[in-house]
Amino acid sequence: MTLAKALAPSQSLPVRALMVLGGSLFIAIAAQISVPMIPVPMTLQTLAILIVGLTYGARLGAATVLAYLVEGAMGLPVFANGANGAAFFGPTAGFLVGFVFMAWMVGYAADRGVRGVLATAAVCILASALLYVPGVAWAMALAELLGLDASKWGADNFAMIWQYYMAPFLLGDAVKAVLAALVVSGGWAALKGRRA
Ligand SMILES: O=C(O)CCCC[C@@H]1SC[C@@H]2NC(=O)N[C@@H]21
Q1: What residue ranges are annotated as transmembrane (predicted)?
Q2: pLDDT digit string, tens, across residues 100-118
Q3: Which residues sit opposite 35 in a β-bridge?
Q4: Is ipTM strictly over 0.90?
Q5: Domain 3-191 classified CATH 1.20.1640.10?
């Protein structure tokens, strides 16, 4: 049982479509709250994606992030700093694709009944850490495979990857993971309080 299902037990197709649209809008807004660093900005996207995944569950959470990526591919300025689908050919493409798995993973945990701030925060921290696998893999390996100039992205060795793609974000990502857990656990507590 997810929070969304507890709030709206009968999720008809129009309701789910609205949830996907609303969730993708939420992520797009969070993407604009950023510190515009080069090559990778600091943003609130992971906070929004974790909240969406935990609230919607694996399937709807992943579908919402997929819809978000499709909106960007269609040219809408939904990615960090108003970028659109061109970002799929830039240094953050691995993170964008990884967002789908991130939402799925925390949603799966929510579907399986993971509750409480500590357990939820642990899952969110793990999902946030795993996001760096596609994020870094794209910047370092795929870019070279496709003949793109990785050095322009500050990604031609692990020291640079650490400096530009990881170190500036790890603490903030952990804070966002805990915040997402607090928000969703707070949602559950509020719901229980209302029903008691
Ligand atoms: O181009 C985009 O819209 C994606 C930006 C990705 C930013 C990544 S997500 C993980 C890490 N934490 C941040 O705050 N920024 C990077």
Answers
A1: 15-35, 47-68, 88-110, 117-141, 161-191
A2: 999 999 999 999 999 999 9
A3: 42
A4: yes
A5: no
